[in-house]
């Protein structure tokens, strides 16, 4: 996923994340086929240690899937600002958390330029989004600025081999369909990954810790697998255009065969986790 699209703000804001459909397609695959049944979002909240009264900023909140999942566990004294570059995402987040003021507030903004006072938040959450910001050092400086002394950044990301089996499936289909995949259809050059994240964080934070979430997928159905591929930023995702009639059906048929050839279940190893960085 190292293609330039991955950090292209206009593409991200107006296409990939214009609304929450692409992301929900990918979240659905994880919810349906993950082998670790405890759940990523429950585990994530377990890692968070904040006082019962705390101001929290989430950057790149997406459709607020984290907060939907952990809502009953949230302390009443938390004040959470959910923000995203995409208005469509913020609308989805607001729709998904309708009845909970004053717990949640919503804002459209770019994590690179945060419109908040210095030292304002106990914590900033930046989940699976720091690899999207064009200016990573500038964003980390901004996050550090808005944190109180001793405040925490919680930053989730993926490892270089995250879901490699889906990458291989995509490549196999692209070969069969005669499509050139753009360079970088892979997590290997991720700008902020489990492997390189600590290095990026250390200049700005006094203490940095990495925690991994053990998980995998056992995908037994073709439709969600094909839909996943079509939801990504890869060239395969742009195959469902008018110039390639029948391509979605071809992908679905290919996915069926691909899963059948693996005994009815495609095993997909994940590499995902979280950095906890203290100011
Ligand atoms: C992969 S999604 C993750 C969403 C959510 N944090 C989650 O874990 O489910 C990445 C999100 O980051 C947002 N995003 C991308 N670049 C951003 C930026 N520069 N500032 C704020 N949000 C950004 C996207 O609009 C998208 O909602």
Tell me the distance between the termini: 30 Å
Heteromolecules bound: S-adenosylmethionine
| Helicity range | 25-40%
Low-confidence parts: none
**What structural class do the secondary elements suggest?**
alpha/beta
Strand segment tally: 9
Main sheet strand line-up? 3-2-1-4-5-9-6
- What spatial form do the alpha-carbon principal axes imply? globular
The CATH architecture comes to 3-Layer(aba) Sandwich
Note the beta-strand portion.
15-25%
Biggest sheet character: 7 strands, mixed
Helix-strand topology string: HHHEHEHEEHEHHEEHHEE
In CATH, the homologous superfamily goes by the name Vaccinia Virus protein VP39
Folded structure, characterized:
It is a single chain. The protein is an alpha/beta fold and 279 residues long. It has a single domain, classed as Rossmann fold (3-Layer(aba) Sandwich). Helices cover 35% and strands 21% of the residues. It contains ten helices and nine strands. It has helices spanning 9-16, 21-33, 40-47, 65-70, 87-96, 136-146, 164-177, 197-201, 222-231, 247-260; strands at 54-59, 78-84, 104-108, 121-127, 147-158, 207-213, 216-219, 266-269, 272-278. The strands form two sheets. It has a seven-stranded mixed sheet. A two-stranded antiparallel ribbon has the order 7-8. Helix 5 links the parallel strand 2 and strand 3. Helix 2 (21-33) runs antiparallel to helix 9 (222-231) and helix 9 packs across helix 10. The two termini are 30 Å apart. The mean pLDDT is 91. Bound molecules: S-adenosylmethionine.
């Amino acid at each position: 996923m190292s293609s330039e699209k991955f950090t292209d703000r206009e593409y991200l804001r107006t296409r990939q994340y214009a609304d929450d459909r692409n992301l929900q397609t990918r979240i659905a695959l994880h919810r349906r086929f993950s082998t670790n049944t405890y759940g990523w979002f429950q585990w994530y909240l377990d890692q968070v240690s904040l006082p019962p009264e705390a101001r929290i900023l989430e950057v790149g909140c997406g459709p607020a899937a984290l907060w939907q999942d952990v809502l009953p566990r949230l302390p009443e004294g938390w004040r959470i600002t959910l923000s995203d570059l995409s208005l469509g995402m913020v609308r989805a987040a607001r729709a998904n958390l309708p009845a909970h003021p004053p717990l949640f507030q919503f804002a459209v903004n770019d994590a690179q330029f945060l419109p908040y006072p210095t030292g304002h938040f106990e914590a900033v959450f930046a989940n699976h989004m720091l690899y999207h910001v064009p200016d990573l050092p500038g964003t980390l400086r901004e996050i550090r600025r808005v944190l109180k002394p001793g405040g925490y950044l919680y930053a989730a990301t993926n490892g270089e081999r995250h879901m490699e089996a889906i990458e291989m499936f995509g490549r196999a289909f692209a070969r069969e369909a005669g499509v050139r995949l753009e360079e970088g259809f892979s997590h290997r050059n991720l700008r902020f990954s489990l492997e390189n994240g600590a290095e990026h964080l250390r200049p700005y934070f006094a203490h940095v810790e990495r925690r991994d979430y053990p998980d995998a997928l056992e995908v037994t159905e073709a439709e969600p697998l094909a839909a996943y591929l079509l939801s990504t930023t890869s060239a395969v995702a742009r195959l469902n255009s008018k110039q390639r009639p029948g391509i979605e059906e071809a992908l679905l048929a290919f996915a069926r065969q691909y899963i059948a050839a693996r005994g009815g279940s495609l095993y997909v190893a994940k590499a995902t986790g979280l950095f906890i960085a203290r100011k």
